[in-house]
Amino acid sequence: MMISAYLAGPDVFLPNAPDHARRKVEICARHGIAGQAPLNDAIPDLAAMPHADAWLTIFRKDVAMMEACDIIIANLTPFRGPSADAGTLIEVGWFLGRGKPVFGYSNAAQPFALRSRLQTAALPDPIPGLAVEGFGLPDNLMIPGALLDGGGHPMVVPEDGSDRAFDALDIFERCVEVAAMRLRGR
Known about the structure:
Layout: E1 3-8, H1 17-30, E2 33-36, H2 51-68, E3 71-75, H3 86-97, E4 102-105, H4 112-122, H5 142-151, H6 170-183
Parallel strand pairs: 1-2, 1-3, 3-4
C-alpha cells in the first residue's frame, strides 16, 4: 500500500499553484509516496460562493484530505514574516495530535532569530523589548520539536547555508527522501 502525504504549505497561493503541485506530486511518486496537494480548483463554483461559505468549504475539504492521508510533508519556509505560514502550522499540529508522522522543510537557511531581528529592524515591534529565543533553530522551537517528535527527523533546510527561492523544490525533494526512508524503517 502506497503511503499518502498531505502536501501542506502556502504553495497554494503561488500564481502557478497547480503546476507547482504537479511537480511536487511527481517528486513524491518517485519516492513511493502519493502526494496530495490541497488545491481548491476541484471545488465547484468556489468563486461564486459567499466568503462565509467559501472559506468553510475550503477548510472542510482540507480536513477531509488530511483525514485521508497517512503523513504530512509541510513547507515551513517563512511566509509573510520570519516564520512559517499559520495555516500550515495548524495542519502540522493536526497530524501531530493524531499521532501521524510529521515531516517538514524550509527553503530558508538563516536561523529564526536572525530573520526575526531583520524583520524587527525593518518593522519595529509594537512592544519594544520582546525577545525571540535563539537556539539556532530554523523556526520557533515548537515547530522543529513537532517535526522531531512527530517524524523522528529535524526540519530539512539548505545544508549549504544558502536560501532558496520560495518555490524551489530541491529541499522539498530531500524532505520527501527523508520521509520515505523513515517510513521504510531505515
